[in-house]
Each structure stands twice: as structure tokens, then as C-alpha cells.
Amino acid sequence: MAASNVDENYFSKSIDNNDRTEWVPLTLTLVEYPKGDLIGKCLALISLAPFGIGSGFIALILFRRDLHTITFFLGTLCSEALNYCLKHTICEARPLRRDDIFIEYGMPSSHAQFVWFFATYVIYFVFIRLHHMNNNTIIENLSKFLIISSSLIMAILVCISRIYLEYHTFWQVLCGAVVGILFATFWFALTYLVFTPLFPQVVTWKISEILLLRDTTLIPNVLWFEYTNTRQEVRARSRKL
């Protein structure tokens, strides 16, 4: 009997302690949608696109080590830092007041700013930096169209998802999109005019050699260059064997 009373007291105290513990969700990845709403579920999945893009950046940086990809990724980080500063300066609440979920400010939308920064930068990159993707002009133009259109569609759908799921108001999303476009314009100009001319010098640094960093600015078609060089190397090694 004494042992059972001790156990009951222990569990009752544990429950009381758990009740007093304040649990805070990680709103960065938490996305809710109305139960049974298929459109809401699809938009909730689409709103996670920034995390897919971030994972892609990390994979590209680890396996390609290209300086332009690194500066692009640094631009997204600076954009997020700018968004944090703007949110904590404006201090505008999200449209729904649910203290257990919406613990962050909503103006401007970080998702909208992220995707429009990415889409705008990609558009500049395709029109200004990306040349001679393929020897066939039709295929090259089609590839550029698909890259630009998919980036824009993704950005639009993410913005719609944030409004539809009531995480942000229309004006919070619009402000985030405008800030993302403007910052992408600034960052691409900074990269193109300031950073890119320094890349040839950066790759000569000892740390760049250790990290295998490379500059592919002067190579018109990186994929074709890597494909042909890999094929030639494989053939040469096959002959030796």
C-alpha cells in the first residue's frame, strides 16, 4: 500500500510539472491546414518549398563547391536576416491569434520574401549570366522558359498558400514579395559587379584549395563541360586498364 501511494504521488507530481511546462512549437516548419481540405493540404505542402530550396543549396555547395552558388546562398541568408529585422521593427501580428502556434510577427511574410528573392535572382541569372546552355537554340530557349516559369509558379503558389492557410494577410505577403524582389535585385547586382570579378583571385587562396572551391564564371555550359571532360577521362583510364 505504501509503495502504491508513493507511485501515485510521484505520477501526480509529474503530471502537475508537465502541465506547468510551456511547450512552444517550431513555427518555422509547422504548417496547419483545415481537416478534410485537400486544397489546403496541397498548399501546406507547397508552403514547405523554401526548405526544399535550402536543402538543394546545401547539396549543391557540398558537391559542386561553386563560388556563385555560395554567394547565392549567402544572399538568401542575408534576406532572411533582413526579414527578421523588419518583422521585429514593424511588430505586426499574424491574422489569427492562436498563442500556442502564432508566436512570431507576420509583417513581412518570410516565406513570400524567400521565394520571390529566389525567383527574381533565378530570372536575372538566366537572362544575364546563363548563356549557351545547349547547341540547339530551341531547346535552350525552352529550358530557360521552363526554369523561369517554374520559379514564378512556385513563388505564386507559396504566396497563395500563406494567405489561404491564414498565416499572413494579403498585405504581409505582398510586402514580403516586394522586399524579396528588391533585395534580389540588389544582391544580384552586388554579385555580378563586385563579387564575380574577385572570384579568380579567391580561388587562388590556400583555403579555397583546401575546400576545393572553384569559379565557373567563364564556362558557358558547366553541365556540358563536366560531361565531356568526365567522358574523356573515363575513356583515357579505360585505355590504360
TrEMBL record:
Keywords: Endoplasmic reticulum, Hydrolase, Membrane, Transmembrane, Transmembrane helix. The keyword Heme does not apply. InterPro entries: Dolichyldiphosphatase_PAP2, PAP2/HPO, PAP2/HPO_sf. Pfam families: PAP2 (PF01569). It is a multi-pass membrane protein. Pathway: Protein modification; protein glycosylation. Its main location: endoplasmic reticulum. It is found in: Endoplasmic reticulum membrane. GO terms for biological process: lipid biosynthetic process; protein N-linked glycosylation. This is Dolichyldiphosphatase.
